[in-house]
Design brief:
alpha+beta; Transferase(Phosphotransferase), domain 1; single chain; Phosphorylase Kinase, domain 1; four-stranded antiparallel beta sheet; 11 helices; five-stranded antiparallel beta sheet
Length: 443
């Protein structure tokens, strides 16, 4: 990263001038000494506005690539990637589209706008929701910077919103003829634009050009927790992180009737200023009689009842308490700096799932307090009905104590980043030494 990009990376949203072209300003991360403030202001207004929910069933006929011409050439991008001026544009082949996706004219109009069954319109200049809310953002306003990561549903990279000088994380999802990917796009857009809470990553807007959907979110400059936990997480920091996660999950359940379904350290983002926020809602599900109908998410963090339900082809096994199990497992991973189940299960998925279903639940190390160990035990009860609810967890002595103490999360983040960089440097040096020793001698 050159000097200019490095400088941008260290400036928080709150330090940058200007407002985004959308219905709200970027919120600064919560301070290090106390949990985030109660929801109000923008959140209350957006809730009052009756923001519509997107539903995959509202999209008739599936997806199809729109005609060439409404694309991103003016912004310097082709079908989801940069193109050079002398590179001829290639029209995507129309031969691969199957019957369920043939009627694309119902959702993609002649201008290339994507219509979500009257609930939202996604186009090259932003997204308009049916309740009147609009988020105006487009590719020409963005300066592409570093790639931050790749996942099952797309690529995330850092971008700079040039009109406001605000750093953002932009997720790019190439549309494919796959119902699960379409459902994930709809679900994440729905949750991101409705979920206004201190513990949920901010949504800045979305747009659609040619074969890709892009949406822009708050850039959390310290990355995800799984990249910060290698040295372990002390109990006071663990309490603050856990409190933020529980409040975020409770908000999703109570206000939006949503189960996250993929709770793990990778999906918790942290800022250098101490903000802690949930992200990645592509596999989240609507609550229906307290059950989510599908079992998706990361197998390593699945609750025992989910694993048994999948093995028996029982799709009605996911409840809110399954997310509580994933929360408890994530807490132990953060505390010890690695996945809690024995190392021999790492390379063998069957052994890993067998250990979760038939083995004893893992525990926090003994040097953690009785309250913290009891908190985790209440998350990891093998019988889902006996696990604590979010309300019970928030009222647990472990989190009550967190609300009374000052915790410098920003300082811990700085130390965790230094530890990570030091370990990476040591690994590079060790590899260089190994390559030197193993290199053939020069004659």
């Amino acid at each position: 990263m050159d000097g200019a990009v490095s400088g941008v990376a260290n400036i928080s949203l709150a330090d940058r001038p200007g407002n985004l072209s959308g219905p709200h300003k970027p919120a600064s991360s919560p301070g290090p000494s106390r949990p985030g403030p109660p929801i109000g202001g923008l959140a209350a207004r957006r809730m009052k506005a009756g923001v519509p929910k997107l539903n995959p069933n509202d999209v008739p006929g599936g997806l199809h690539l729109p005609p060439v011409g409404a694309g991103p050439q003016g912004a310097g991008l082709g079908v989801g990637r940069p193109i050079m001026e002398d590179e001829p544009h290639r029209r995507p082949s129309q031969d691969n589209f199957s019957t369920p996706f043939s009627n694309f004219s119902k959702i993609v109009d002649a201008s290339g706008a994507l219509h979500f069954g009257g609930k939202a319109i996604l186009h090259a200049q932003g997204v308009n929701f049916s309740n009147g809310a609009s988020f105006s953002i487009n590719m020409s306003q963005l300066q592409l910077e570093d790639e931050l990561g790749k996942g099952a549903y797309g690529t995330v990279r850092k971008v700079l919103h040039k009109p406001t000088n605000v750093a953002m994380a932009m997720k790019e999802i190439r549309l494919e003829l796959d119902d699960s990917k379409l459902n994930a796009i709809l679900m994440e857009l729905d949750i991101l634009h409705r979920a206004v809470a201190p513990e949920i990553v901010e949504f800045y807007g979305a747009f659609f050009i040619e074969s890709c959907v892009y949406y822009c979110m708050e850039y959390m400059d310290a990355g995800s927790l799984d990249k910060l936990q290698a040295a372990g997480v002390p109990e006071d920091v663990l309490g603050r992180i856990t409190g933020a996660m529980v409040r975020g999950l409770k908000f999703l359940k109570d206000e939006l009737q949503i189960i996250h379904r993929d709770v793990k350290p990778t999906n918790v983002l942290v800022s250098r200023r101490g903000g802690i926020k949930l992200c990645d809602f592509g596999v989240s599900g609507q609550l229906e009689k307290s059950l989510a109908k599908t079992n998706i998410g990361c197998q390593s963090y699945m609750a025992p009842e989910r694993i048994k339900g999948e093995s028996q082809n029982n799709i009605g096994t996911y409840t809110v308490s399954s997310d509580v199990w994933s929360l408890g497992l994530s807490m132990i991973e953060m505390a010890i700096g690695r996945y809690p189940y024995p190392p021999e299960t790492y390379a063998n998925v069957f052994a890993q799932l067998t250990a979760i279903v038939h083995g004893d639940p893992p525990e926090l190390p003994e040097h953690y307090s009785d309250d913290s160990r009891d908190f985790v035990a209440r998350c990891l009860h093998k019988v889902p009905e006996l696990r604590a609810t979010y309300a019970e967890l928030l009222d647990h002595p472990f989190l009550r104590a967190d609300r009374k103490r000052s915790v410098d999360i920003a300082k811990w983040v700085e130390e965790a980043l230094e530890h990570r960089d030091r370990k990476m440097a040591e690994e590079r040096q060790a590899k260089m030494l190994q390559d030197t020793v193993s290199a053939p001698a020069q004659v």
